[in-house]
Design a protein that fits this description.
- The chain has one domain.
- It has no helices and 23 strands.
- Strand 3 and strand 4 form a beta hairpin.
- The radius of gyration is 21 Å and the shape is globular.
Length: 351
C-alpha cells in the first residue's frame, strides 16, 4: 500500500453500458479513506454486501506482529455507513498476529470474516457481522474457532453455501498412519451446522489444496491432491468427491471419490502453498475442474479442464481425459515468487 498507513478502498468502474446516473457523492479520482491511522496494516480483505456496497476488513497492528481485526461498511455511493462505528467493528477482540484474512457475504446484508492466527500453531477462526454493524447474535466476540491448519496446505477455501451460510475446506493434521486429511465444515447464520472429515486413506497420504464448489442440492463438491507415501499400495492422484447439504457422502460417491489423474507432488519442490486445482459449478448440475499436472521434476504443467456430471461421470459432450483450451495454446507458468502459481486460460468454446 502506498504509505502503508491508510486503509483505502479503490473502486474503478469501466466499460459499463448503462443509462446516465447521478454522480456518486463519495467516489472521486482519489481513493476513499476507510480509516486514517498511523498503525501498520498488513492484511486487507473485502466482499460485496449484496446491495452494491462493500465490506472492508483489515488487521490493524498495535504492536509489531500483533493487532486487532476491524471491519467497515461502505455504501454504494462511496460513503462510510453512518450506522456503523466510525472506527469500524471489531471482528475479534483478540490482539494477536494474523497471516491470512478473507470475507464472504451472507446474502442477508452482513458478512462472514475468516482469519488465520499465526504463532507456534496456526489456527482458523470465523465470525459473522450483520448489516447493523454488530456481531451476529450468538457469535462470540473472540470469533468462532474452526480448527488447526496443516502446514502442508496452509490456506483454506471459504465459499458461500447459497443459503446464507458458508463452507470451509482445509487440511488438518490427522494421525501418524495418515499425516493429513481433508476437512469440510459448514456454518449457518446461527453458527456451526456440521463438520465432515473425509475418511482416512488406507496408507499414509499428504492431502493438499482442498477446493470446493456448491452442488445444486446445496451440498458441495470437494477436490484435493492426494500425495501418497506408498505409491505401490496407493498411487498419488487428484481426487474429487461430493457431499450432501448434511455432510454425508452423496449417493453413489465415497470419501475417496474419483481420480482426476496422477498427482506428482514430489516434482513441485518444497513450496506447495498455491493450488494447482480449481473448481466451479458448471450451471447444469455438474462441476468444472481445472487441474495442473506437473510434467517433469521442476518443469512445466499440462493443465486440463474437466467437466463432470453430478454422478461423477464425464459430461457426454466433454472428453473424459479433459481438454486444453481449444482456441489455441493455454499458458501456465511458475514464478520465482515463493509458492506462487500463475495461469492464463482462454475460455473454452464449448459451454
Amino acid at each position: 500500500m502506498s504509505s502503508a498507513r491508510l486503509v483505502m478502498l479503490i473502486l474503478i468502474l469501466a466499460g459499463i453500458a448503462a443509462l446516465p446516473r447521478p454522480a456518486h457523492s463519495g467516489w472521486s479520482t482519489d481513493p476513499v479513506t476507510v480509516r486514517p491511522t498511523a498503525a501498520s496494516i498488513p492484511l486487507v480483505a473485502g466482499s460485496n454486501d449484496g446491495g452494491f456496497g462493500t465490506f472492508v476488513a483489515w488487521q490493524e497492528e498495535v504492536a509489531a506482529g500483533s493487532g486487532f481485526l476491524r471491519v467497515q461498511h461502505l455504501l454504494p455511493n462511496g460513503d462510510l455507513d453512518p450506522t456503523w462505528p466510525v472506527d469500524g467493528v471489531l471482528a475479534s477482540d483478540a490482539q494477536v498476529g494474523r497471516d491470512h484474512l478473507g470475507m464472504v457475504e451472507d446474502r442477508l446484508g452482513g458478512a462472514y470474516v475468516w482469519w488465520i492466527e499465526s504463532g507456534s500453531s496456526r489456527v482458523l477462526y470465523v465470525n459473522r457481522l450483520v448489516s447493523s454493524g454488530t456481531l451476529a447474535p450468538g457469535w462470540p466476540a473472540r470469533g468462532r474457532f474452526v480448527g488447526g491448519m496443516s502446514p502442508e496446505s496452509p490456506t483454506p477455501q471459504v465459499i458461500s453455501d447459497g443459503a446464507n451460510g458458508i463452507y470451509i475446506a482445509r487440511t488438518i493434521g490427522f494421525a501418524e498412519e495418515d499425516p493429513t486429511a481433508v476437512n469440510v465444515r459448514r456454518f449457518g447464520p446461527a453458527g456451526g451446522l456440521w463438520g465432515s472429515g473425509l475418511a482416512a486413506d488406507a496408507v499414509a497420504t499428504i492431502d493438499l489444496w482442498p477446493q470446493i464448489a456448491v452442488a445444486p442440492d446445496g451440498g458441495v463438491y470437494v477436490a484435493w491432491g492426494s500425495w501418497s507415501q506408498d505409491e505401490t499400495a496407493l498411487p498419488s492422484s487428484y481426487r474429487l468427491t461430493r457431499l450432501t447439504n448434511a455432510g454425508a457422502n452423496a449417493p453413489g460417491w465415497t470419501s475417496a471419490g474419483i481420480s482426476l489423474g496422477a498427482f506428482h507432488a514430489d516434482w513441485l519442490g518444497t513450496q506447495k502453498e498455491a493450488s494447482l486445482l480449481a473448481l466451479a459449478p458448471d450451471g447444469r448440475g455438474g462441476v468444472w475442474a481445472l487441474v495442473g499436472h506437473p510434467t517433469a521434476p521442476g518443469g512445466g504443467l499440462n493443465t486440463l479442464l474437466y467437466r463432470l456430471q453430478g454422478d461423477g461421470q464425464s459430461a457426454a459432450d466433454w472428453p473424459a481425459s479433459g481438454r486444453n483450451s481449444p482456441g489455441g495454446p493455454t499458458s501456465y507458468w511458475l514464478t520465482a515468487e515463493p509458492a506462487s502459481f500463475r495461469r492464463r486460460v482462454r475460455a473454452p468454446q464449448d459451454s
